[in-house]
Amino acid sequence: MEEINNIEVTPCTESDYLKPLRVHYNQNGTKKSWDFMRTHDSVSVLIFNTSSHCFVLVKQFRPAVFMCEWERNKKQPPQSAEKPEEGASEVAAPAAEPQEGQSAAEGESSSSPWPPAAAGVTYELCAGLVDKPNLSLEEIARQEVLEECGYDVPVAKLKRITSYRSGVGVTGAKQTMFYAEVSDDNCVSAGGGEPGEGELIEVVKVPLHEAMTFAYDERIPKTMGVIFSFIWFHNNMSPKYKISTNV
């Protein structure tokens, strides 16, 4: 994993992807308000390679996950210091004062140790935003599979699994999940995403017999889509192919 450095956290007032809004409404005669984000819907694809009997996932650095880990570690109580030697002062060193022109929050951010880059890495299904109005969901999904994972899959070979709402308390965006079977013959590139769009993606293969162990291993950071899709495969595809997913 590449090194992450020169980290700076700033307010986000303009974004092509997230629009913070506040809605005011009456519910059963009670005035309420709710803050939410307007964002794009998305597609995701569970890819199963029939040549090697493995699932094809992507692994990438997610800044939001990285910052959540930093916040979580920052709130944990510090480890107890070693007992000072006899005669040594037990008075704690004063907290570092913010530099001139620096807010207290920024001073806290810069003085708190950043976690390793691996803390922001997650395993995910191949996925992408629905931001091309001239393409169908299937065509967007096909494009993402080609760009991120390197497999050329005809639209007709994409099976729609279901759609669902994600982030219902914040975005309420809809994601549509597809299933695609590929073989080594469909692999036309190494994948890895579009560098011009800032994507840096590693293609990862999970053997079928390790899938459910992988899904329930809390030490492996992954999205809910990975867990749900593996369960869907176990319930719907394993009996058809008479193969075990190690459940």
TrEMBL record:
Superkingdom classification of source: Eukaryota
Segments forming a coiled coil: none
The residues covered by the Nudix hydrolase domain are 38-228
Instruction: Cite the entry's keywords alphabetically.
Output: Hydrolase
Which GO molecular function annotations are given, in alphabetical order? metal ion binding; UDP-sugar diphosphatase activity
What are its cofactors? Mg(2+)
Q: Which GO terms describe its biological process?
A: nucleoside phosphate metabolic process; ribose phosphate metabolic process
Question: Which protein is depicted?
Answer: Uridine diphosphate glucose pyrophosphatase NUDT14
Which lineage? Eukaryota, Metazoa, Chordata, Craniata, Vertebrata
